[in-house]
Write a structure and sequence with these properties.
Layout lengths: L1 E5 L6 H10 L4 E6 L11 H18 L6 E3 L3 H15 L5 E2 L5 H5 L5 E5 L1 H4 L2 H10 L5 E5 L3 H7 L2 H13 L7 E4 L8 H7 L5 E3 L2 H11 L14 E5 L2 E3 L9 H7 L5
Parallel strand pairs: 1-2, 1-3, 2-9, 3-4, 5-6, 5-7, 7-8
Antiparallel strand pairs: 9-10
Helix pairs in contact: 1-10, 1-11, 2-3, 7-8
Amino acid sequence: MRIAFVDSGIGMLSTAAALRAARPDADLFLSMDPDHMPWGPRTPDEVVQRVLAGARAAHDAAGAALDAIVVPCNTASVHGLTALRAEFEPGVPVVGTVPPIKPAAALGGPVAVWSTVATSRSRYQADLVARFAPGLPVTAVACAGLAEAIETARPEEVDAAIAYAAERTPADVAAVVLGCTHYDLVGERIAAALGGTAALFTAADAVAAQTLRRLGESAAPERAPTGAVTVLASGRPAGLPPAALAYAPGTELAGVPQP
């Protein structure tokens, strides 16, 4: 299998590592966009163009033989999935990312959704809450600067941004949805800041599982680790950025041979 991941930066790492753990025989193409990141402040049309460029670069790097394209980013999924599917499906399945509000709400208690400032105010997130958590108290927590601090791997800034968000999270929440894939990379630090009382919900494992379902495949972690990892930086062959090595999924993927 040849699977591409398209995102502006290292937010893709947790989903890519989850897929690698499930299928170590799959070839992964990590298409990042350092020349134009972050995507969040860009217009929807600009995000669409960046997502398409990243997917096309991965498609070319795979010799036009991709089996699936994964968009492990909420912003890119909201704006880019329609255009990606129009260009690549049905030949190449395209899998997006949705904040896991539904499973978090299934606990039945108050929920907090940690997301970027823009996403926390978006109609998209409000619609998800209305659809999957009707009747539950849900707090939208705008995590100012957290994704940016994680992307640059500055520990003091990460801790400060987590503390800021934790202060704005009600103490009685049963579940906290990590509505930005960057946040997965510091999940343990987020849990510690919240006192370990709330369950954290992330999308990485679910997206990896959905990708395999779309391909008609099953998880097989016992397979020989024959898959390679190809990294692209705005279409150019590259290695993982240094900041990726500050996080466990980054070090795991860095240890995988490149072709």
